[in-house]
Amino acid sequence: MKVCLLNDSFPPVIDGVVNVVMNYADYLRRDHGAEIAVATPRYPNTDYSQYPYTVVPYPSLDVTAITSGYRAGVPFAEKEIAALSAFAPDILHAHCPASALVLARILRERTGAPIVFTYHTKYDIDIARAVKSRLVAHEGVRAMVSNIESCDDVWVVSRGAGESLRALGFQGDYRVANNGVDFERGRVDAQTVAKVTADYDLPNGVPVFLFVGRLMTYKGLPLILDALRQLNDDGVDFRMVFVGKGADRELLENTARSYGLMGGEGPDKVIFTGAVYDRDVLRAWNTRADLFLFPSTFDTNGLVVREAAACGLASVLIEGSCAAEGITDGRNGFTIEQTPEAMAALLREAVKDLSHLREVGQNAMDEIYLSWRSCVADAYERYQIVLEEKKRAALPRRKKELSDYLVALTARSMGEQEKLRQIRRELFDDFKETAVGMMENFQEPAGLERLWHSMSENLQEGLDARRSGEDPGRGEN
């Protein structure tokens, strides 16, 4: 099977969806013998030849100032579309409803391959952050939903993600397709943990709380700081480690300082490590911590919660959130109301019995851990069903929207433009071959006049042939 994976980000950018795409590519290739092509917006000074599969970077615009480091893909790139079409994919699997999905729709017009789409996160919140106009943001969400409804098979990463998509106006069918974890099941050895954490003040016996992910306020991080302020005022000793980067890091650091949690006379109780891309280092942090704090109602799946579980680390989650699906409070994790007071109350009790936290963490490892191998195997099986439905013409029929006609027109016109460019290249090559001889005619007015008459006669001959239909090829040229 040939699978084209499309996303609006790829290394050097690292985030949860990039992690998904890379694991799909690896396990589809290794376990199922699939041929893989990845399409992604191009980032400057990036080597895309290092991967064991094809990566086709297409043009992008620098909008990093308003998108926290992400570039905007420009999917109308004939050269890259031609390369992906030549790959002849059986399945197009898009993981972002922006340029990646537009490109997938163009490729579907070119190749006939069906589109599978996975809805990973609440993109409407990201749109609202990037676009200040409510009207523009609203239209952006409508366009996104229309884009998703154009797909042949829609997947969501949790039940809550499906409800979120439905709330945006999506009217089609969807299925839940869980994401997995690329961490091995089990805790990291003590020597490795000590080496990774050696530069930080983490005294033995002092509880360590952990967050891993983008440092954005909408992930509930102010709630963590507000809760820790209450613990600090009560005289509870702890360390809170934030691993990651994001647009709101400076704001969070300033808040921690104003609360007296860092930058004072005593030890910093809140630590920001910056971004960590080494998966073994992340496993070590998850092994060192006593409790993972993830009070996000934004995330539709929360892979970091399952990564923590892989290392025997229990999480504190908001009751009813997508990340809390599958969590039984007090058994394989903890759920609270979405208030600093509820977080602070749970942490006060938790630090009294760290051995209980390890028991709950072990249950999380046993009960909510999902490997990427099993998740990709399920996806591969679904691909086969989609292809069989396509063969039987049994894929869901949709009402044609304006965007469908525009995409089809774009795909056709881009192909015709490539033909015209080829003609121009051939004409230019022909002209180059005779240019030296022609230059001799420019040395005298009589020679130039002869050249001009010759060219005019050839042009008129071509136009006459086109009108009469005797020589359509020459007439077109």
Q: Quick summary of this structure?
A:
With 477 residues, the protein is an alpha/beta fold. The protein contains 18 helices and 15 strands.
Structural notes for this entry:
With 477 residues, the chain is α/β, with parallel strands linked by helices. It has three domains: 2-180 and 374-402, Glycogen Phosphorylase B (Rossmann fold); 190-369, Glycogen Phosphorylase B (Rossmann fold, 3-Layer(aba) Sandwich); 445-477. Helices cover 50% and strands 13% of the residues. The strands form three sheets. It has a seven-stranded parallel beta sheet with strand order 3-2-1-6-7-8-9, sandwiched between helices. A six-stranded parallel beta sheet has the order 12-11-10-13-14-15, sandwiched between helices. β6, α4 and β7 form a beta-alpha-beta unit. It is elongated. The two termini are 40 Å apart.
- β content, as a range? 5-15%
CATH superfamily of the largest domain: Glycogen Phosphorylase B
Largest sheet: 7 strands, parallel
Annotation field: number of helices: 18
Rg result: 28 Å
**Number of structurally distinct domains:** 3
CATH class categorisation of the largest domain: Alpha Beta
Report the CATH topology name of the largest domain. Rossmann fold
Low-confidence stretches: 471-477
Straight-line distance between termini: 40 Å
Gross geometry:
elongated
Counting helices, strands and paired strands, the structural category is alpha/beta
